[in-house]
Amino acid sequence: MFNASFVCMEQWQPLLGVGVSRYSNIFGLGMDAALWRHTALNVSYDYERGQRNTAQSLIAHLNVAF
């Protein structure tokens, strides 16, 4: 159980239901590519699996300098 205080309140309250996983696995994979002289593409994938949840994310960035 965690205790938390909120802005403008000096009263501490327990946060019920917020638990920390005993174990977790994280896998990440990324790629950077220079497409043209001032253009680059960055792509990354992350997968996380824990005791209570799983999460995935796919992120793509296109950078253009001018």
Describe what this molecule looks like in 3D:
The protein is elongated. The protein starts with a strand and ends with a strand. Helix content is 0%, strand content 64%. The model has no long low-confidence stretch (mean pLDDT 81). The chain is built from no helices and five strands. The chain has 66 residues and is mainly beta. A three-stranded antiparallel sheet has the order 3-4-5, with no helix packed on it. 0% of the residues are buried. It has strands at residues 2-4, 13-15, 24-36, 39-50, 54-64. A hairpin with a 3-residue loop joins strand 4 and strand 5 (54-64). The protein has a domain at 25-66.
**Which consecutive residue ranges, at least 5 long each, have pLDDT under 50?**
none
Pairing-aware structural class of the strands and helices? mainly beta
Question: What can be said about the biggest beta sheet?
Answer: 3 strands, antiparallel
- Proportion of residues in helical segments: under 10%
Helical region count? 0
